[in-house]
Amino acid sequence: MKTKTAESILIEIKHLRPWSFSRIQKARKCTYDFYWSYVEKQKPAERADFFILGSGIHYILENAINTVFKRRKPLNYDVLKYFFEQFRHKEPSLNYEKVKPFLPKILTYANAQLRRMGKIQFFHSEVELCINREFAPTGFNGKEAFIRGKLDFVFAQEDTLYIVDHKTNRNRDFSKRIKTQLRWYALLAKAKYPEFKKLALEVHNVRYGTVRREIFTENDILNFRLKLVPIIEMVEEELLGKSFKDLTPSPSSANCRWCDFRHICPVRKE
Q: How far is CA 64 from CA 50, 71, 72, 80, 175, in A?
């Protein structure tokens, strides 16, 4: 189901950069999905329930952590319910019963941050980081932006920078995708905070209340950078200057299941 716009728009560098982890994943997974998302910028027919739930959990958790650090005293369920109601102003479809099982884990995690306060040098949440082609920090939406990402929670303790990523996955284990995402964040954080020799990447699974940690050294980050650049260059060479009709999609049950554009895709698989 091609439109006149789809036939005429050529993919430019502005459609490709800055690369985020999700953008490069889409480009490698299915070029149709990428085109509709970042070139035509089509709006999905509907937002998946799991995406709305994840956004709500992140919103409540982010505000809970910030409030703990601001008040320097434990929170209670009333505060979390208040944050839920705030989120519902933006997403009325989110049901409280779906959020409720997560609240005990959120409360425990947020209040546990009080124990870290005395040792923390600095703390930031929802940190937007971006680097240019020389891997130096640059503006998140600037002309030189090459790679970027948003970190849920960052704090420094002694010689280590801690980067926390909140997940609501049902899978308790580190997937290959999550490990790659952590390395992506480490690359960005190292450029922003070069004084730290060691980076600790923590995956906080809100569903189970667990925290798993991966330690990255400077060599680990350099090796990832050396692997990432050829991948990005290959994707850019493959897509740059092409229109929709030049693209080759990758339909499969796995790719199509979570695609936002099944309703317009001519090659979708159920």
A: 21, 10, 11, 7, 27
